[in-house]
Each structure stands twice: as structure tokens, then as C-alpha cells.
Amino acid sequence: MSIVFFAALCALGAFAVAVAQSQSRPSANTSATEKRHRVMIALCVAVLSSVVIWVLARGWDYYLLGQMQRPFSPKHAELRPSGTVGLRLGFLGLFLFGLVYLYPLRKHWRWLSKKGKTRHWLDYHIVLGLVAPAVISLHSSFKFQGFAGMAYWTMLALTGSGIVGRYLYAQVPKSLGAAEMSLKELGDFSSQLSSKLHAQNVLPVPQAELLFRLPSKEKVARMPIIVALLWMMALDVVRPFRIWKLRRNAPGAGSRWRTLGGVLRTRNAELEKAIAMARKQTGLSKKILFLARTERVFHLWHVVHRPFSYTFAILVIIHISVVMLLGYF
């Protein structure tokens, strides 16, 4: 059950990161520094993921055993929390979380704030914040009882809170000009774009209008905060399916088999350009529409995320102190 829960949390994290990345794709003139940063992030993900996958593959049969059967497994001496592999995973997880906490500390340490860009630090903070819980899960061998279990569930709550925060961060328009556009202007722009695409016989109007469909400003204003957050996520989840349907039904899209039902890009350059315009505009429209709710949720998120962070740090210090006193090192 714990493995399934952790897998669901990882899937939610992947969704949040995918949404953020889809809304901040690099331009053609991306600087060498940005390219180098992306390479380093990819390398970091590859190395840490390889460690997690290797340990999980090696001990899968062990992790599926019940607590009473594990001591009789030949892998118990390695994979138990105090085992040769389990202990090293604990050290690795502690090191990764130490790096994770450098991001909030950077705001208070002047010498550290001058190192690198805040956005780059945030990328590492996110990657390490997703991988570190996986490492700690393997360190604990998915055994979450007692005081260590309390620290573990606090860690997962902290990770889940961070995933929500990253998603909310991606929902705030980075362009001041875009944020100042009125909803009426956005609606007019959407109608003009839909008509233009229809005049060019690139996209069918009903499908294009379906992509632009959003709740009214009044409805969003009446939504409770949690409902607004779930609605935003639902729109992001549904959007790719609408685009795939739009691509399947558009004239000149070619064979459905060739595009895997609209998932892959077609060979029609005009069609793909129109789809890119529609995707960008609907994403921006959604951000502006929910901006007031997003800012309020973001404020509340800071209130919740910090106590989880402090609590987890205290529990980890207590856990390490107790383990050292008991002589497991």
C-alpha cells in the first residue's frame, strides 16, 4: 500500500513538472548558460534516477515481503535500514535534503544569494526534492512505523506541498503585460484567432472553440480555493486530449495511425503552427482567469509549507540522534 501511495505521489510530481516545463520551453536563442544548466539538470536526474531504479530492481522481491519474512531473506543484511545498502541510502538521502534546504537558506545568506540564478536554484530544489523522498523510502525499506514513520509521512506531506507550490508557481504569468490584459481582451482575441483559423481552413471552428472553453469570471470568483485549484489542474489535464482530438479532426492532418490518434505532430506546418498558437493562448487565458485565486492559494501555500519544512528538519535531527545513540553507526 505504501509503495502504491508513493508511486501516486511521484506521478503527481511528474504532472506538475510537466506542466511547468510545457509552459517554459526554451527559445531558439537560448543562451549557452541556460543550455549548460539544462544539461546539468538532465545529468542530475539521470544519475539519481539510476541509483533509485537500480536499488528498487535489486530489492523488489525483498520489499514485497512482509515484515516477519524479511529477516529470513538473503538480502536483509543489505537492504534493511541499518544494512550496508540501506545505511548508505540514508546518508545519500540526508545529503540530498541538505542540498534541498540550501534553496530557502539562500534567501537569508547574502554570499549564497549571489551564486547563480534563483530560477536555476529552484530547478535543483525541485529535482532533489522529488528524488530525495524516493531514496529515503528505499532506505527505510518501506517500513513506516514508530518515530521514523512520523518523520517519513511528514516528508511526504512536505513533498506533496512542494509539488503543489511548483504547480502554482507555473500558473502565475511572468509577463507584466500579459497579467494586465483584461479578460474581455482575451476573449476577443480568442474569438478572432478562432475565426482566423477557420478562414484559413486550418482548424474546424467547433474544435477550436472547445479548446478555448473556460469557466466564466463570475464562476471562478465564487469557487472555493480548493475547487479552483482542482479546476485549474483539470483544465491542464484535459487540454492535451482536446489538442489530440483537434489534430485528429483537422483537415490535412494525415493518417491517424501516423500521428497515433493525434498524439504526435503532423506534417502540416500550418496546422501545427495554429495548434501551438491555440495552446499558448488557452494556457495564458487560464492563468489570467484564475490569477486572483492562484495568488491567494499561493499565499496560503507558504503558510502551510514552512511548518512542514521545519517539522521535518526537527524530526530528522531527532531520528539521527537516536540512531547514533543506539549505536547503529
Describe this structure as you would to a colleague.
It contains 15 helices and no strands. 75% of the residues lie in helices and 0% in strands. With 329 residues, it is mostly helical. It has helices spanning 2-22, 32-63, 76-79, 84-100, 102-106, 110-113, 118-139, 146-171, 176-179, 183-199, 205-212, 217-222, 225-249, 269-289, 291-325. The chain folds into two domains: 2-171 and 312-325, no CATH class; 176-289, no CATH class. Residues 1-5 and 25-29 have low confidence and may be disordered.
Task: Provide a compact summary of the structure.
This protein is mostly helical and 329 residues long.
Output the keywords.
single chain; 329 residues; mainly alpha; 2 domains; disordered N terminus
Low-pLDDT stretches are 1-5, 25-29
What is the rounded Rg?
24 Å
Number of helices: 15
Domain count = 2
Instruction: Give the DSSP E fraction (strand runs of 2 or more residues).
Output: under 5%
**Structural class from helices and strands?**
mainly alpha
- What share of the residues lie within helices? over 70%
Order of helices and strands: HHHHHHHHHHHHHHH
The N- and C-terminal alpha carbons lie at a distance of 30 Å
Number of strands: 0
Q: Sum up the overall morphology in one term.
A: globular
